Amino acid sequence: MKKEKVVFILGPTAVGKSGFAVELAKKFNGEIISADSVQIFKGLNIGSAKITKKEMQNVAHHGIDICEPEEEFSAFNFVQFTEEKIQEISKRKHLPIVVGGTGLYVKALTQGYNFGGTNKDEKLRQELEDLLKNKGVEGLFELLQKLDAHSAETIDKNNPVRLIRAIEIAKNNGRKTYKQSGIEALVFALERPREELYKDINARTEKMFKDGLVQEVQALKEQGLTENNQSMRAIGYKEVLSFLKGEISKEQMVELVKQHSRNYAKRQITFLRSMEGVCYIEVSDRQKAIEQMENKIKEFLKC
RNA sequence: GGUACCAUCGCCAAGAGGUAAGGCAAAGGUCUGCAAAACCUUUAUUCCCCGGUUCAAAUCCGGGUGGUACCU
Q1: Does the global pTM surpass 0.90?
Q2: Domain A4-112+182-302: which topology?
């Protein structure tokens, strides 16, 4: 099977991924696929820092606004969607450029994680949620031990999310499996000094509120969305929802969004560090960063 | 000016004579189907300052400094 060449532009929130991606896409006849677990949702624009029509500069973008805000979407769906898009774009002789901050999505794609091995089992999950409520994580852990002692050895015993998934897999006699990844990746990780990044995150958050984040969430709320929806659990949405319900003050809301965004950026950076074969690009000097990436891409496309 | 109360990590805060809880932040980390999620680790030799009592003081006493409340 022929591997398709794909360029990845990763990095923490607010580092400027979208802008670089558009610039590179124009130079290399590229099309952009978003790897962002929030920008997939229609109607979540301001809070997700979604790229605008104008900012796209006529470069084709995929993976944005592909879900209704009440729908669910997972890493599995992302891989499916994106693999298909990569094929399409490559067929057009364009360069697929995957841009985003959702680490698992990208890792699953590049490492060939096979999520198809075990499907989500809603009924089982409901039972396990009850078990968690009654017996806590210990209850879940004991069950996992019975089902798959090997898996229980390495699991994070305190993490209900992981325990539930591990049990789900064990019940289906599943194992983590890999498939042959159909892509050849060139991965860039954009980075900036932490302090600068945090300052920009704070400033961007202020701007989101000026641009009407509260109104955006208000509208979604009126559509019937609640904190039970996946989309409304995103940073910038859950806090505003909490404010609209009168649980926190306006000032608290703004501070929390900033704080959660900073925490998120830190986790993204940590996640990237664990990925191998990543090419780090310091983007404080914009022009230099573009040149570096341009050269790497040229080399990548040659062979 | 007088009286009362308070002063513990960047912030909130427990502690009441026996050797500094906890939460938040921060830093580091984990990661195969909600990942903007979930979870883990680390972080005050020292309690505003000075002196005293005591085997032992963040805790008791005296003085200073700062804050808050009330009175004149």
Answers
A1: yes
A2: Rossmann fold (3.40.50)
Are the C-beta atoms of residues A231 and A237 closer than 8 Å to each other?
Answer: yes
DSSP for A149-200, written as a single string: HHHHHHS-TT-HHHHHHHHHHHHTT----B----EEEEEEEEE--HHHHHHH
Nearest one of A22, A96, A83 to A300, comparing CA atoms:
A96
Which residues on neighbouring strands pair with residue A261, listed in sequence order? none
* Distance in angstroms: CA A63, C1' B61: 72
What residue ranges do the domains of chain A occupy?
4-112+182-302, 117-171
**Could you give the CA distance from residue A248 to residue A245 in angstroms, rounded to a whole number?**
8
Give me the CA A156–C1' B18 separation in Å, rounded.
Answer: 39
Q: Residue A64's closest CA among A84, A80, A78, A83?
A: A78
CATH architecture classification, A117-171:
Orthogonal Bundle (1.10)
A31-71 confidence digits (pLDDT tens):
999 999 999 999 999 999 999 999 999 999 999 999 999 99
Shortest-distance nucleotide from A114 CA to C1': B32
Provide, in whole angstroms, the distance separating residue A266's CA from nucleotide B43's C1': 18
- DSSP 8-class letter at A114: -
Whether the complex's predicted ipTM is more than 0.85 is answered with yes
Tell me whether strands A278-282 and A61-62 are parallel, antiparallel or unpaired.
unpaired
